[in-house]
Design a protein that fits this description.
By secondary structure, the chain is an alpha+beta fold. The protein is 32% helix and 20% strand. It starts with a helix and ends in a 23-residue tail after the last helix. Bound molecules: coenzyme A.
């Protein structure tokens, strides 16, 4: 793999939409799950383009989109979402570079801490993040859905 030579990371552009959705559908099974309409990749992209779009990045190898990551900063903490690397190119350091890229962007905004969530069953993901310095916080994660679940962008 020549990623070390030619891989670049840049802001998401609307023209990347189809390639990003294809990547997510492979990387995130929930995007293929028709029983979870709230996981709509078109809506995820539309929402991110309306909220801190400058923190939505793609990794590009030549002309090909091979990875994604989203960051967010609410003025108190930063969050990382939608980290994905093309299955055929994993274990070549692309995920590490994407995390470093979003960390830099958040640090530049004054963000003091970056949080992320992973499914507890995904032990390999925990290894990945621990290798990058992330540690489990002594918290439980709570969530609540707000309002109606939109199934398509407005
Ligand atoms: C998680 C993911 C983004 C990692 O991307 P990647 O480009 O393969 O990661 P890297 O090559 O930078 O891995 C760096 C290190 O993390 C660890 N690591 C990465 N994937 C691992 C795995 N499946 N099992 C164990 N350790 C792993 C290794 O220590 C690796 O270094 P090494 O290859 O020299 O041993 C990728 O596996 C992916 O897209 N998974 C599916 C989507 C997903 O679950 N995203 C996370 C949502 S929170």
């Amino acid at each position: 793999m020549t990623a070390a030579v030619t891989l670049s990371i840049r802001r998401f552009d609307a023209r990347d939409t189809d390639a990003v959705i294809a990547l997510w559908q492979e990387a995130f099974p929930e995007y293929r799950d028709v029983t979870r309409p709230q996981r709509n990749p078109h809506l995820s992209i539309a929402n991110k383009l309306a909220t801190q779009p400058e923190l939505f990045f793609v990794a590009v190898l030549g002309e090909r989109i091979v990875g994604t990551v989203m960051g967010g900063y609410d003025g108190h903490r930063g969050w990382l979402y939608s980290l994905a690397v093309d299955e055929s190119l994993r274990r070549h350091g692309i995920g590490t570079r994407l995390v470093a890229h979003v960390e830099e962007a958040l640090t530049a905004r004054g963000c003091p801490k970056l949080n992320l969530q992973i499914l507890s069953a995904k032990t390999e993901l925990r290894k990945f993040y621990e290798a990058l310095g992330y540690r489990a916080d002594e918290v439980i994660s709570l969530g609540k859905r707000l309002g109606e679940v939109a199934t398509s962008p407005a």
